[in-house]
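Lecture 7 notes: from sequence to structure.
We start with the chain below.
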Amino acid sequence: MSVQRASDSSVLYDAVADFVTTKRLEQKSARTVSNYQYDLKTFLQVVGAQTPMANISPQMVKQYLLLSQQRPGPYSHFSRYRSLRVFFNWCVREGYLPSNPLTVRPPKLPQRVMPIFSDADLRAMVDACTESTALRDRALLLVLMDTGMRLNEVVFMRAEHISWEEGALHVYGKGNKERIVVPSRPTLLAIYRYLKARRSPLENIWLSEERRPLTRSGVQQIIKRISIKALGKAAGPHKFRHTFACNYLANGGSIDSLQYILGHSSLKMVMQYVEATKAQRARAQSRLFSPVERLGLKA
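Predicted structure tokens for the same chain:
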């Protein structure tokens, strides 16, 4: 496909539709494709779906980003920028555009302290598993705590993915990439006890009370129910991933091994955990090395 496509009858709508189809054929996750569609829909609405690709200019993109920046939520604005970057890079490769019209640097995101569970939080949630689904809920919590798996990866766990002899889980992440994680013996035992008690021929690990495979929403609702009961506030599954990563590094785990365990293709996200661990350590040591505490001064 030649660059001449940038000057022929192709319009923005055609390019976006082709891009989405390509990402589906590349087996990007349904969530990733949906995010691209959502973000690019706003670009279509602002710029015009029938705008010729040859008319897409850096000035036009900058005007769109100015409007995007005014909408609430810096993370939403960053997501729209990122989707444009992926889309325009693809357009250049496919010949829709001669060059990338996105010429501005990515917006800066506000620096936030990464939320993680304390040890007391984790214990409280495990202790809160007291209902009829206690075996399932406890096993689910321990897997989340012990592996750092993504929500989708947990939801689609199957019995055949467990190697009892090796004490390992075969995890299938983004792009269906396989990796192996090694949970602790208590976690494996909790899974075993749950599977033994549930007595179902289904390969899916996590079942609802109606004995149907749990969905993403189902797992989220379980975590929400348990966290409200134990902590007085709702929490989501991804917070377990943050907690696992920060604790792994704080306890001496290496950066490259954490990258593998979490299934990240680059170190970018892992380095965010490194920074979060530094902040976590600084908070813990600020009181330990406080001059006021050392001098025994009273309020």
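Points to note: The first strand starts at residue 162 and ends at 163. Confidence is low (pLDDT under 50) at residues 1-7.
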